[in-house]
Structure formats: structure tokens, C-alpha cells
Amino acid sequence: MPTSPTLAADQPPTAAPDTARGRRADLIMLVVAVALAVWVTSGLWRDPNQRAITVNSSDQALFEWLLAFGGHAVTHGENPLFTHLLNVPDGVNLAVNTSITVYAVVFAPLTYLIGPPATFLVILTLNLAATALAWYWLLSRHLVGSRLAAGVGALFVAYSPGMVAHANAHLNWTAGWLVPLLVAGVFALRRPGRWLRGGLVLGVLVAVAFSIAAEGLFFTALAVAVFLAVWALHPARRAQARAALPDLLRGLAVTALVAGVLLAYPLWLHFAGPQRFHGTGFDPVIHAEDIAAFGAYPSRSVAGALGWDTTLAPNPTEENSFFGVPLLLLTVVCFGWLWRRAGPGRQATLTALGVTAVVFAVLSWGPVAKWNGSRTGQLLPFGVLDDLPVVNAALPSRLALVVAPVIGVLLAYTVDRLRATPPGRTAVWVWGVGFAAALLPLLPTPLLTSVRPPVPEFVTAGTWREYVSPGGVLTPIPLTLDVTPDGQRWQAYALSHRQGEFRLPAGFFLGPGGPDGRGRIGPPPRTFDTLMDQAGRTGLVPIVTEGSIRLSRADLRYWGVEAVVLPDEVHGAKYDLDEDALRRTATALLGEPRRVDDVWLWTVPAA
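Now predict its structure.
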């Protein structure tokens, strides 16, 4: 961003001096960033293979599977963006899901060495620490002169309520280190003579970001576009913007060319490939930010531990604002204080930051305003945009994530200015109390974790290969879905331990089949999985007739299932399941099972 570390004047950005003191500050920042990352994820470090994130074990199982499948696909010459291991016989288009292909490839050796759950934990922890360090680099080397100011801003962004909430298993959204690199890459294009090299680098970075967090890349592009438009239209910056525009456009053209070549196949698969869909299947009203949530406190924070949190998010993973009233007030005070002391050029930057934050905050409220859990009926701007391609695939509440970096930059500017021109002792105390009151309640607490059932010995010992032909179909009961992710955990284990492939008739993925042609989670239900789901949820054996037996066996033949497996303990990601009711229902449909290792097994003869 075109801003200055010497806040009294609007000079071009210069890096903070790389002195011995500065290097000590960098080392301290590294230690703090890593320590906080380990602190937040500490519940999983106790035993990565046996513990899961309590509020989102389903997404954790999905990302573990993506890591195992991606490594397997690359080492076996398979397509990493489309698979027939799930959703037999149609397969799954991973390009319209969150494929994290770059992570899967880069960390494939680690996945094979320590397994998908431990690799998932390593990446999650590195994401948080790297986000803090990347923002620290951008702030300290380009935006402010004080390493302390850079550290305050960077740590706030990396461990803001939204980032900590998405640390509940989202390897895509916690990859916040991509954002400062993308921002720096865009602004580097304006430098004379840098457009070609800068465009090449940025094009590669865009391709990487698309693979890891396509939705985050989209939001970053929108935010940078809004910021640049407001900044360039400001009277104090018009001449500078006009002079930089040719190089910027040339660099963006190179970026588009490089990224387009690298992403040609993924983009085709995303928009025109098999098993594609439009939208997400998630209600944009439910998954919009409650206006009151901006002043609320998040659950995984000191304030949450004191009982000050709320239930204004659709789930604990989507606490995308939750800044608390003190921080909102501090942000307004910082903005006004900086504005009064800024020259015209700095005011252009502050205006662009403020407009960007307001635009994304309002858009995050979704198509209809909600206040403190109640819909007001007031229509909002997002309702006009919701049917646009790409936009309709984004959850509006996540647009609030753009606000946190703006706040982080304002906090960094404020600390930098206070250090450059120290106020009186009383003012220092007032500012200190203000920062403490705003930030201390938001200090993160560790993610909630709980024990999950181990992968059965039937899978770990490779016994399944005696009952399923190579590439054949096995299904646990209930079938694998987001709420019952066992099957993908088993498949991830088999792939990462080089046992071979078995396929699953369902799975946790987004695919076609939702209302109005939109996407849905998993395949449309059939008779067999509906009966199993009913039994597991209610603990009651449904009425089984000759018709339901016939339809259930037809479903198994349609999928080509060779083995139906029930472990002693089924993991329900959202609710407990009744294993006894599942076994009795499957017995009524398929006959008596046999006991093999630590599972109940029904073999399905070929038609």
C-alpha cells in the first residue's frame, strides 16, 4: 500500500532499519507467532491421530482426506482435481471443492511419513504462524517504521476472532499468509520497470492461492480493487495513480496470462467440467453476519472463557467479525486521531482503508439485515449481487474477514505514530488502557478438541483387501457424509499407508443435486442410506418390508458395493449415533453379519 513509516509526512514506503535491534525484534516476533499458533492448536498436539476438533471434526476429516488423496494422486499419476474414489459411480469434481492441491503435493512426503491427521495439524499450526509473520513482513518492511507497531498489527490480524474461528479445521481460510503476499505483489507492479517480473511472480502466486483458498483469493482481489479505486480517485493521489497506471495494467496483464496458463484446466473443470454446480447450497441469509456480531465477543477468547461470548454466528467456525465494542471504539478513535495528524496523501490512504472496511462489513450482512439474532426485513446490497456467478458461491459472512486486516493496519499506524511522536505521560496511559481494554479480551484460547474413534483394525491391518477387490467399493454404515465422516478417514489411512484403493458410494463433498440446480453436500439420498441414517439418528429400527429390502439391495448393486462395514463405535460429527440400531437395521436388510477383526461385516454378492 502506498503509505509511509514516517507518518508525519507522506513519503514513499521504506523498510524499517535492519539493525541488530531490529533483528532481535524479528526473532521475538517469530517466537511469539509460533507460540501462539501452538497454543491455539495445543489440544490436537496431545495426540493428532486420536483427537479431533470438537465443533468441526467433519471438515477436519475432509482436509485429512484431501491431503491423503492429493499425495496419492500425484505419486500414482492420477488426476488430483477429479476423483472416482467418492460418489460412485459419478465421482467428485474437486476443482469446485476446496482441493488444497498445493498443500497436498508439497506435504505429500510428510503425509506418507506421519499420516494425514498429523500433517493436517502441522499445516494448521504453520498457517497461523506464517500469517502473523507475513503480515509482520509487509507492515515492518513497507508500511511502518516501528517493529513493535508491525508486531501489534500482524498479531492482531493473524489471531483475530475470524482467523481463530476458522482454525476449527479450515486449512484454506487459515492460510492468511497469502493475503499480504498478494497485496505486496499488486503494489509492486506500480514500480517503474517491475511490471514484467512482478507480473510473473504475482501470476504464480495467484495460481497457488487459487489452489489453496480460491474464495479467499476472490475476496482479496475485491478488497484490493476497492482500495485502489478509492485511493486513486482521491485528489491527493490522482496524479500518482495516473502515472503508475500503465505499469500496473501491464503487470496485471502478465499476471492474468501466467495465472490463466497455470489454471486453464482447473478453471475449465470448475466452470464447465463434470459434476459442477452453481452456488453452494448454503442459505445466504443464515450464513450472513449478524450486525450485532461486530460488537460481540468470540467463543475461543479470554472474553469467551469469561462467558461474554454469544451465539450470533451460524456455527463456531464462522465467527468472522466478533471484534467487541471496545475494539470498534478504539478503531474509530485511531482513525480519527490519525486523520487529524495526516497530510493529504495519508488521508487518501485512510479514506481507502475506511471505505474498504465499510463496504465489506455491509456486504457481510448478506441480503437481509439481522440484528441480535432476529431478521429485520431490511434489504441490503448483497441481495443484488447474490445471483452473480462466483459471488453466489461465496458465503457473505466471510466478507467480514476483510475488516480485520484493515483494523490491524490502523492499529499498526497508531502505534507507529505514538512511538514517532510520543505524547505526554497521561496520554500514554490513556492509550495503553484503551489498547488493553480492546485487545486483551480477544486473546485466543485453545480450540476445543475431543477423542474420536480410532481407524478400525479391519482397515489398519489391511484386512479389507480380503473382501474388496482392487478399486472395489466398500461402505461403512451410515454412509460417509459430512455428519458421518468415518469412511473418508478410513480411505485416507489406506491411501497414505499405500494399502491400495477402495471406493465409497458417498462422501463429504459439494456436488450437484441441490434445489434450483445449486450444489449440495453429498449425493442425493437413496433408500439404503436413508434407512441407515434414520436408525443411527433415532436409535430405532425402521419398518423393514420386502420392498425396502429390494430397494436397498438395488442401491448396493447400483454402487457396486462389495462389503458393508460397521465398527463398534461410529463417529457422529454433529450428534451421537446408535450402533446397535444400525447393526439390527443392516441385519434386517442384508442378513446376519460376520465378525471380522473389530467390525461387523456384510458381504454383498455380485449381481
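Confidence is low (pLDDT under 50) at residues 1-14.
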